[in-house]
């Protein structure tokens, strides 16, 4: 190849780089003050469903006053470099959610090779759902879910959610997704609690979720039925309900969760640290799940497994006639450090007496609670559990020896924590 043609090739590559993707087109979302900007996006999708960029520009605060179902996208990047605001009035949102045309999420994205991104610019790229008013009113009727990102080969990065009403990122059903550098800011500035503001729902295949900051009022991650290969690492979680698997097996459902690694994560003011929940009467298997190098600050339930889960908000424990639950095989809890809130406390979701998270017979100083179903749990292990009650009390455990078939790494009893 002689020099001019090499030069031409380099110039071509540089210019395509400048314009984004070769052959790609960009839709710059227009904005009209005081109007809903969503209809323009929906209309544009006919031409920008593949090989496109959909850009919410920096410098603009967009009104997304109605949901956007992006449909099935191929080779598309959605870039949110401007701010987005949802309707501020609760009844307006409720009417939309109640309507049969509501797509289930305010933003719904499916497809292959899709990037959903915000911006690293801290001033811009915020999506404000005005959740505070909902939390203050304890309004739980017709709440929208936030983002459904059910794609194959996806990137979800630099997104910033400000006061979401409830559920945030749903990756369930997705495959090969990397979600990183996202922020969820569901922190209340009053006593109104941010109910059900789950961070990531992760019932997908080959998901890598890392370097996110999740301040919320429910599970930081919830790994649901169908998950296979979920890696959650280097995240910061504050205020919520833990690093959760489940709930699985509700209403006798057959569930499968496998190959999950949750590691190098800091948990501050969370109700639970590592958590597993499956319903009495459920079926299926959760296997090969590891929580490793978890740092806890002010967490009442550092490690908590229950195969007897039920919704304590909705009434007493059902008297199940079945002796089953989703089975457990090979769970590891390794290298937990930090401190346990072991004084009487009342978390924001505690609206009943006793609280939904009340554990009969517990002293509040249990660093490990294994509420297992007989004959359904094998190879559950703990190692290096260095979490200590804040009061200086001796750490305790709850564990029924008739439910474990191998050494769980401590003496299985209702009593002091004695590592083996
Ligand atoms: C994925 O989509 C992006 C545009 O967002 C494009 O640059 C890239 O070439 C696509 N990758 C594949 C493998 O098609
Ligand atoms: C964007 O929204 C966030 C959250 O509401 C806000 O803090 C920020 O000031 C907004 N940015 C601009 C430039 O208005
Ligand atoms: C267990 O899961 C990890 C991912 O967390 C994976 O690397 C490993 O191969 C799995 N082991 C088995 C026996 O399936
Ligand atoms: C443990 O996790 C913390 C983050 O919480 C990280 O800084 C540290 O490097 C991790 N340690 C190991 C041995 O991976
Ligand atoms: C379960 O049985 C116990 C004792 O038989 C009873 O007190 C309780 O009310 C029952 N719970 C439900 C949900 O039916
Ligand atoms: C469930 O198991 C317990 C012992 O673990 C046994 O006493 C009870 O009869 C069993 N119930 C059923 C319906 O199999």
TrEMBL record:
Main location: secreted
One of the record's GO molecular function terms: polygalacturonase activity
Pfam families: Glyco_hydro_28 (PF00295)
InterPro entries per UniProt: Glyco_hydro_28 (IPR000743), Pectin_lyas_fold (IPR012334), Pectin_lyase_fold/virulence (IPR011050)
EC number(s) per entry: 3.2.1.67
Keywords of this entry: Cell wall biogenesis/degradation, Disulfide bond, Glycoprotein, Glycosidase, Hydrolase, Repeat, Secreted, Signal
Localization annotation: Secreted
An annotated GO BP: carbohydrate metabolic process
Enzyme class: hydrolase
Protein family: Belongs to the glycosyl hydrolase 28 family.
Identification of the protein by name: galacturonan 1,4-alpha-galacturonidase
Upper taxonomic lineage: Eukaryota, Fungi, Dikarya, Basidiomycota, Agaricomycotina
């Amino acid at each position: 190849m002689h020099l001019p043609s090499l030069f031409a090739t380099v110039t071509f590559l540089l210019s395509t780089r400048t314009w984004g993707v070769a052959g790609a087109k960009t839709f710059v979302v227009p904005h009209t003050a005081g109007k809903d900007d969503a209809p323009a996006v929906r209309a544009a999708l006919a031409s920008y469903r593949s090989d496109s960029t959909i850009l919410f520009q920096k410098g603009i605060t967009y009104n997304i006053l109605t949901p956007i179902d992006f449909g099935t996208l191929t080779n598309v990047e959605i870039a949110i470099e401007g701010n987005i605001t949802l309707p501020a009035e609760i009844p307006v949102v409720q009417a939309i959610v109640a309507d049969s045309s509501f797509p289930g999420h305010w933003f719904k994205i499916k497809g292959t090779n899709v990037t959903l991104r915000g911006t690293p610019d801290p001033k811009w790229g915020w999506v404000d759902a005005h959740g505070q008013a909902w939390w203050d009113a304890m309004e739980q009727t017709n709440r929208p879910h936030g983002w459904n990102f059910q794609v194959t080969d996806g990137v979800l990065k630099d997104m910033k959610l400000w006061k979401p009403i409830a559920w945030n990122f749903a990756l369930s059903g997705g495959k090969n997704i990397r979600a990183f550098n996202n922020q969820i800011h569901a922190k209340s500035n009053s006593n109104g609690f941010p109910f059900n503001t789950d961070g990531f729902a992760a019932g997908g295949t080959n998901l890598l979720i890392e370097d996110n900051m999740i301040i919320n009022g429910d599970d930081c991650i919830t790994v649901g039925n169908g998950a296979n290969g979920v890696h959650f690492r280097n995240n910061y979680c504050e205020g919520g309900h833990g690093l959760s698997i489940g709930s699985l097996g509700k209403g006798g459902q057959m569930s499968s969760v496998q190959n999950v690694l949750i590691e190098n994560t800091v948990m501050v003011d969370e109700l639970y640290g590592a958590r597993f929940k499956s319903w009495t009467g459920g079926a299926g298997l959760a296997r090969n799940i590891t929580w490793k190098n978890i740092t806890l600050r002010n967490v009442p339930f550092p490690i908590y497994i229950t195969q007897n889960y039920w919704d304590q908000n909705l009434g007493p424990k059902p008297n199940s006639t079945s002796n089953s639950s989703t089975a457990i095989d090979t769970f590891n809890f390794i290298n937990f450090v930090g401190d346990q809130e072991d004084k009487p406390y009342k978390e924001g979701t505690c609206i009943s007496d006793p609280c939904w998270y009340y554990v009969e017979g517990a002293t509040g100083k249990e660093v490990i609670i294994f509420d297992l179903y007989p004959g359904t749990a094998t190879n559950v292990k703990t190692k290096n559990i260095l979490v200590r009650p804040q009061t200086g009390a001796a750490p305790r455990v709850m564990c029924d020896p008739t439910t474990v078939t191998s050494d769980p790494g401590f003496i299985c009893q209702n009593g002091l924590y004695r590592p083996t």
